[in-house]
C-alpha cells in the first residue's frame, strides 16, 4: 500500500508567536511524464467538506498505482478555519482587513510578449519549464518585499508557489447553502464531464484573484499570445474550483462521491494507472456572464423556497420576505419571482437579511454539457 | 374580522441616535376574567421562526372570538436581530459585553415572607394583584437607576414589564440545529400536551435569568411560601419557552403547526372561545437535571451523525471527528458514542469545533408525558 | 442667523425592517455662480471625528454669508456606525461581505471620447452640465439594476449621486492611530495649503473605489481628453479626503481647528463671503507611490515607538516586537528600524499582531508644499 | 545569573488540531518555607501589558536571590489573544459563547464545615496542605467530567490548578482606557502599599468567577469558619488582580515600574532576599460597593472629558454626548455630570455608544490607604 509523506508548510505567525502551518501530504512521481497534481481545501474557513474529500482521495490513492506527483493540502487556511464569531466560522475574509482569502493570489506582472520573444525558440516542454520558473520567481520576489507582505498575501502566494509547480490544480470550496458546482475555464470545458458535479460555470480568462485563475490565467495568456504569433499549443495547466455543496458540513459518504469524480479526472489524465469511470449523470453549463446574483429588494426575514440545483421556471416562487413590522399591510409577506427560467445554485446562509443582501446566485441560459 | 392594534415599544438607542423599537400587536380583553397572554419572539437574533409563528397566530386569531387580552411582540431584540458577523446573525449575546440576551431578566429582590405577611389577609385575586404591582414596581425602580442600566438590561426589563402584566407568558426561541422542544415548569407539566412539540424539559424553580423563569419564579415562590403558611393556591402565572427547531430558518407552513399548538393551549385556558384540539402526537419529558451537554473531547471537523429528535441507543454513533493533521494515525477519524440511551435534542451549528465546544444537548432518562 | 434645513436620506433597510437613514443638512445657494459643496463624514464606522467637524462647521456657517449651496451628511453610514464587535466599532467593512465601505463607489463606464465628440461644441459651462447629467444617469441606472444592488453599493452610489451634484467634495475620515493628513489630487495640490493639515498625499488619476476618486476621476479624465483634442479647461470638480487624526475619538476643540481649515478653503473658493485665513503652519507632501506600508515581519506584541507625524531618521527605532514565548533567546525583543528617512503617518490600532499585519504607513521622499 | 526553566502548558485544541499552549517559566524554591508565587497575564486577549511586566520581572529576578518558587505564565489565553475582529483583539469573551474568560474559574463545592471538622486536629501547616489537596482534587474532578468541559472552563481550571499550588497569586489585567488600579481582598488591604498602583478596590469574600477570587475565597471561608470555631489563623493565600492601565498597549518602561511594585511585595513577603522598597506615592482605596458603573443615558458620540485617575468634583463635566441627528435642538450636545465627587478609573474604549453602554467606572467615597 502506497504511503503519503507528511510535511508541514509554514504560512505565518499568530500574535502569541504560534506558527500557522498547513499539513502537506505528498506522493512522488513514478513517471516523470505523468502530470503532477495539487489539491487544496478549506481556504475559506467554513468550507470544510473539501478536507473530507482529500481524506477519501488519500484512502483511494493508497491502493492505486499513482504515476504523477500528487500534493494535497487540507486545512489550507489555519487562521481562517480557527476564527469563530458566534457559533459559526468567520472564515471568508481576513478578520482584520475584510479581504476575501480567495482574492489574494498574485497577478503576475510578467510581460508575456517579451517573454515569448525571448523564449519562442524553445520547444513546448522547455517553454513550459521556463515560464513556470518565471511564475515561481515572481512569487518569490513578491514574498521577499522588504516592506513585508500582508498576512493574506503571504498565505496565498505561498500556496500559489506550490500550485505553480503542478500541471493540475484543484481548489476545493463550498457555497453557503449550495448545490455542487464547478468553475471550469472555457478552454477546458470537456473536462467537466469527469467530476461528480451537475453544474459547471464556464469562465473566461479574467484574473479576479482566485486560485484557479491564478493557476491558469498566465498560461492561457501565453498560449493565446503564441497563437497570435502562429504557434498552436494546448494550455499546459488545468485548474478547477469545485464547490462541494454547503459550508459547515462534513459528510464522509458524499466526500467519497466527490473523491471518485476527482479520480475519474486523474485517471483520464493518466495521473493514476487505474481506469475510473466518471459518474453517469446529466451535466449542465452556464457562461459566467449568465451567472446572476439576486439581491434582496428589501430587508426582512426570508423563507427560501427555491432549492439549489432544482430548475426554476419564470414566475415560480423564489422566496418570501416576511415583515412583521408591516403586519396588516400588503408588505407583510412579499413573494419574490424572477422573469426568466434559471437554476438556483446557492442561497444566502441566514434567514434574515438587509436590503441588498445577495439572496441567490442563479444560472441563466443553461445548456447541456 | 378582529383587528390587532399596532404600537411601538422603545427599548433603546443606537450610536447614530436611531431608536430601537419593537412592534407591539394587541387585542384588548372582552372578558376580564379570561387570562391575558404575552408572546414574544426573536430575543436571540438568529432565532427567527417565532416571528412566523406570531404571524400565523395573528392570522388565526383574526377569525376567532378572543376573550382575554393578547399582546404579541415579534422582532423583540432589534439590536440582536440586525447584528451580522459574516453571513450569520450574531444575535445570541450583546456584541459588546458578551452577555446572553436571555440571561438579562431581573431577579426581583422582593422579601416574599414579609410581602406575604403584609398581604395574607387578601383573597387570591387581590393578593395576585398586589404581588403583580410589587413586581412591576421592582422593574420600574431598576430602570430608573440614577447610574443608568445596561443596554441588555433595559431591553430585558422593559420586556419583563409587559410580561408581568400577563397570566400566560410564551417566549419563542429556537436551538442551533435542533428538534422542537419546550421548557415547562414542573408545576405546569400537564400543559405540555397542548403544544405541537414532542419533547419537554421539566424545569424547577431556579432563576437563571431567562424570560420564562423571570415570569414564573416569583409566583411559584409566593405560592410555596403561602403553602408553608397553610394556604393552598395554584401558581397564577404560566410561562413557557418554545424552541421551534433550528435557527436561521423561516418555514411558514411549519409556523402554522406551532401556531395551532399555541392556540390549543389558549383554547384550553379559555383565552379564545373556539375549541382547538392539540395535535395527536407522542410527547416525552426529561427533568432538567437529566439534560446533558456533551462537549467535544478534541478539536477537529465534525460529522454529526445523530439527528435531533431521533432516540439514540447507548453505543450507537453520535458523531465523527475528522482530523486531517492526523492522517495515517488512529486519530484521523474518531467515532464518538455515549454510554447511555438518550435523545439528542440539538447539536452545534458549525462543523468545525475547538476542544470543549458544546457538540450536543441530549435528554437522558426520558419518560412519556 | 442662517438656518440649515434638515432632511433625511434613505440608504437601505435592516433585517427588522428599520430604515437606514442619514441626516442631511443643507443651505441653498444665494449666488448660482458660487461653487456648491458636499461634505460627508463617518463612512467608516469608527471614524467619528468628522461628525464633530461638521458640527463646528455648521456652527460657524450659521453666522456667515454663505453664497454657494452647502450639503452636509454626518453619520453617513448608519449600518457601519452601529456595528460593534467587542468594545470597538467594526465599521471599516461590510460585516457580511468584508467589502471596505470606502471601496464601493461606482466606476462609471462612460465612453469619454464618444461623449466629448458629441458635446465638444458646447461651452465649458454647458459641457460641465452635460457631463454631470451623464454621471447622475449612470448612478441611476446602477441603482435600478433589476437584479438588485448590494447593501454597500446602494449606500455608496446614493451618496455619490449627491456628491456628483457638487463642485467641491470633502470626505471626512480618520486613520487608526494617526496624525492628520490629506488626500489631494495632483491637479489640485495648491489647495492643500488651506486645510489645517500638515501632511498631504498627492494622488494620481487612478480610480480605487474611494469617494474622492469617484468625484474627481471622471472629470479629470474628461479634461485630459479635451486637452488631447486641443481644448484646455480646468478640472471643474475638487475632491479631498481629510484624515482627521485617530479613530474612536471625539474632540470638539480640535474639530473647530479642522472646521477652520475647511472654511479657509471655502473662503478661497468663494463659497462664503468672509475671509478666513488658513492656519499658519508648515505643510509637507508625498507622492502616493512613495507612501509605504510596513508589515509586521513576525507575530507578537508591539511597542509602537515612532509617533505619527514626527519625522523618523533611517535607523531610528520604529517599534519593538515582544515575544514572551521566546524569552531567553535573541527573539525575545526585536527592534525594528527602516533604512530610509520617513514620516510615520499612522500605525495599527492594536498592540498585538499577526505576521504581516500592516504596522505603519509612512511617507518617504517628503517635500515641502 | 539565575535561569528560568521553560515548559509548555496544554490548555486545548483548535479546529485545525493545533494545540493551544501557554509558555510557563519557573524557578524552583531554594527555601521551602518561603512563599510560592504564581503570576499570569493576558487572560483577556487585548490586555497585553502584563506580558511586558512579566518580561521585566524575569529580567530583574534573574539577578536576584529568589527563595520561593516562582511560576510565570504570560500569554495565558492563546485563543483569546489571537482572536481579532477588525483591527482590535476580541479577547474579552469566548467568541462562541460570549462567556467572559475571567468568569470561568471554578467555584468549589467543598463543604467547609465538614472539611474543618474532619481536619481541625491538624496544625496550621498541615491543615493548609490538606485543604490545598482538596482544592486540587476538586479541579481534577471537574476537568475529568465524562461529558466534557467547555473550552473556557478547561482553560480556567487548568490555570486554577497551577494557582492553587501557590501562596501568592497575581493576575495581570488592564482596563479599556484606564488608570492603574488593584483589586485587593479586604483582609489583605495592607498589601496594597507595595504595588506601584494609586487606586485599590477593597473586595469582600464573594465569588464572582475571577482568578483572584478563585484563589482566595475558599481560604477566606475556611479561616472564617475556623474563627467561628474559636481558632484564629491568617488567610494563607494572598491574591491580587493588577489593572495595568489601558489595553492594546505595550510600554516597556512602564512595565518596569510595575515589575518593581510586584518585587516590592515579593521582597516584603520574603520570596526574594533583596530589599526592594515600594514606590513612594499616595495610594487610595474604595470599597467595591462604592465602585460605580455609569451607563450612557442616551446613544451618540462621546467626548470623554474626565481623565482616568484624576479626581472629579460633583458637577464637573464628565463627558459630552454629541448627536448630529439632533442638530439645532437642545439635544445636539449633552454635557454629563455626576452629583457626587469621584475618581474616574476607566472609561469605555470607543467614542460611539448605544444607550446603556458602560461609559465610566468610578470610585466614590475614596479614602487614603
UniProtKB/TrEMBL annotation, chains A, B, C, D:
Residue ranges occupied by any Succinylglutamate desuccinylase/Aspartoacylase catalytic domain in the UniProt entry: 34-268
Cofactor section: Zn(2+)
Listed InterPro entries: AstE_AspA_cat, N-alpha-Ac-DABA_deacetylase
Lineage top rank: taxon: Bacteria
Keywords: Hydrolase, Metal-binding, Zinc
Single Gene Ontology MF annotation: metal ion binding
CDD domains, per the entry: M14_PaAOTO_like (cd06250)
PANTHER family: BLL3975 PROTEIN
Listed name of the protein: Succinylglutamate desuccinylase/aspartoacylase
Species of provenance: Shewanella piezotolerans (strain WP3 / JCM 13877)
